[in-house]
């Protein structure tokens, strides 16, 4: 008797098998492969290589925020379809989006839109030293997402991540996580990003200087997108 499984998206029963099987797989990132039927693959699998890194990052952050170790394929499939639905709606905001400047990790347009890369909050994806911070900054130049406006964010919070990295006698590099939406809810909208800032001083004052530069940059971005959200320092992200 042939083995069967179910499509994670629509629930349809499928025959499993290497040669005569009906089941297909969608890689949605974070080490997760979703079983699906041919129709659901046509609907949701086409751009999996483009979506998997960002969605997988959001999945890691959501599970960490909610302290969840395991989710069913059906649960992840529901999150994935919602993510794609939001992505498709977001394209309407990008029809006349032209980059005007890049400020730190934020790409800004001439009409108040922005794009920013999503980063994972787990230890394996953290910045341990200055070299890691530079790699993250390089990655951030490719945001891997569409554009957003001020209504797509609900908060502007930041927190220092890990230890500083000395850059000689008068400077130290710091990594900061920035929260724009609650990472416990998977959405296409931006949630967690990360930036490195160099603080200058002598013996002390490095972190205070780095934070001041970060806040100045966030205030500039707020002004460019027209947001009136407060910038809040939190203990941990």
Catalogue the unreliable spans.
Answer: none
Query: What's the alpha carbon Rg, rounded to whole Å?
Result: 20 Å
Q: Helix count, per DSSP?
A: 5
Helix content: 25-40%
How far do the termini sit from each other?
A: 50 Å
Biggest sheet character = 4 strands, mixed
Would you tell me the structural class of the helices and strands?
A: alpha+beta
The chain-level mean pLDDT equals 92
Shape: elongated
Strand line-up of the largest beta sheet: 10-9-8-11
By DSSP, the count of extended strands is 11
From N to C, what is the helix and strand string?
EEEEHHHEEEHEEEHE
DSSP strand content: 15-25%
Give a written overview of the molecule.
It is a single chain. The protein is of the alpha+beta class. Helix content is 32%, strand content 24%. It is built from five helices and eleven strands, in the order E-E-E-E-H-H-H-E-E-E-H-E-E-E-H-E. It has helices at 38-44, 48-66, 73-90, 130-140, 206-225; strands at residues 4-6, 13-15, 24-27, 33-36, 99-103, 106-109, 114-115, 156-166, 171-179, 192-200, 231-233. It has a four-stranded mixed β-sheet with strand order 10-9-8-11, with helices on both faces. It has a three-stranded antiparallel β-sheet with strand order 5-6-7, with helices on one face. A hairpin with a 2-residue loop joins strand 5 (99-103) and strand 6 (106-109). It is elongated, with a radius of gyration of 20 Å. The N and C termini lie far apart (50 Å). The mean pLDDT is 92.
């Amino acid at each position: 008797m042939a083995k069967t499984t179910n499509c994670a998206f629509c629930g349809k029963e499928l025959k499993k098998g290497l040669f005569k099987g009906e089941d297909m797989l969608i890689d949605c990132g974070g080490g997760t492969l979703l079983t699906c039927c041919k129709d659901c693959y046509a609907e949701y699998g086409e751009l999996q290589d483009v979506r998997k890194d960002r969605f997988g990052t959001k999945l890691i952050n959501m599970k960490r925020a909610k302290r969840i170790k395991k989710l069913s394929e059906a649960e992840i499939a529901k999150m994935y379809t919602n993510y794609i639905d939001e992505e498709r709606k977001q394209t309407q905001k990008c029809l006349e989006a032209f980059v005007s400047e890049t400020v730190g990790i934020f790409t800004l347009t001439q009409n108040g839109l922005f794009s920013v890369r999503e980063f994972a909050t787990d230890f394996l994806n953290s910045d341990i030293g200055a070299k890691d911070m530079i790699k993250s900054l390089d990655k951030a130049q490719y945001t891997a997402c569409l554009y957003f406006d001020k209504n797509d964010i609900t908060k502007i919070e930041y927190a220092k991540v890990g230890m500083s990295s000395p850059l000689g006698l008068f400077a130290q590099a710091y990594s900061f996580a920035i929260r724009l939406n609650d990472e416990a809810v998977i959405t296409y909208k931006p949630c967690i990003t990360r930036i490195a800032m160099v603080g200058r001083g002598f013996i002390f004052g490095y972190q205070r200087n780095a934070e001041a530069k970060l806040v100045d940059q966030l205030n500039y971005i707020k002004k460019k997108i027209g947001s009136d959200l407060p910038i809040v320092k939190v203990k941990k992200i």
